[in-house]
Amino acid sequence: MADDVVGSKVADLQAECEEQARKNRFRRQFWRFTHAALGLPAAVLAGISGATGLSSADARIPAAVLALVSAGLGAAIAFLKPDVHQRAAHARRRAYLALEVEARFALTQAASSSAPVPLIVYRDLLERRRMIIAGQLDELVQRITVGGATAEADISE
Description:
- The protein has 5 helices and no strands.
- It has one domain (2-156).
- The two termini are 28 Å apart.
- By secondary structure, the protein is mainly alpha-helical.
- The longest helix has 54 residues, at 2-55.
């Protein structure tokens, strides 16, 4: 009975990873849109204000207003850093997708061998989830790259 509990927990973790990957896909799209929505008008307004200011002496006030709006949009981009948020959401999405695949593999492996999911596998999946939540994606990649080969060797022996 306890073996079924671990398998159901891994299945719950798999579903959670699918949901988090979907949410991070949405976040990436949001930040990409935000970057374009702020950056494009800032560039256009800067160009228009420069052309307006050079066209005649009477147009200096509208040119100054356009330049201030453009600077405000540029400041918003610098403050919000949508490109950083976009990259972070993309990295988290990829990490959650990888974790979801690992959970699915653990469930498939357990089902094909008619054995329960080992508790150590579930613990490892939870540790990876913790690392994603904490933003330790570089360490997670390093751990999977270095630790994955030794873990597979231990299982096969």
